[in-house]
Amino acid sequence: MPWDPNPDESPSxxxxxxxxxxxxxxxxxxxxxxxxSGLRRYALLLVGDxxxxxxxxxECLVRVIAQARSWxxxxxxxxxxxxxxxxxxxxxxxxxxxxxxxxPIETVIADLLAPPRQQDWVELRDLIAxxxxxxxxxxxVVLLVGLEGLSYxxxxxxxxxxxxxxxxxxxxxxxxxxxxxxxxxxxxxRVVK
Length: 193
Hints:
Layout: H1 11-17, H2 21-34, H3 36-47, H4 50-66, H5 77-98, H6 105-112, H7 118-133, H8 136-147, H9 152-159, H10 163-182
């Protein structure tokens, strides 16, 4: 059944359905509300920012409601709402690009500079290689406790070994990783009694 934005003014609809105008208006509001979460998801994918997405959905709903009295029946409300949202996005995008002016380089230089990331990738590569060199028992414990965040007791239960064994393997595994990643350049800490 086509969606009528003016249910209060449609005598044929209220006569056919036997519904009161207030109830029909409520069902129309509910029908529009059904699509708000879908509109928000689509808007979020379009603009990438939750606040801008909310603004876009709000603008869409304001336009749809403001123009409701001048409409004819809409066959597919969902498609109409999504089309309106998309058109608002395109109009705003065009407006921003049309009025975009030159920006002095001094105002955006901080955004253009990024710290080098090569060192991070090298360290990650070295860590992965070092993990592969560790004995299987140590690697399992290091990954369960260090990466997965399991407690010593949980890791012991997963591996079927005593908690003391987990602690011992973890200590030896961490020390071996430290030596492998730093190529033995670390100083050994002495135990203070």
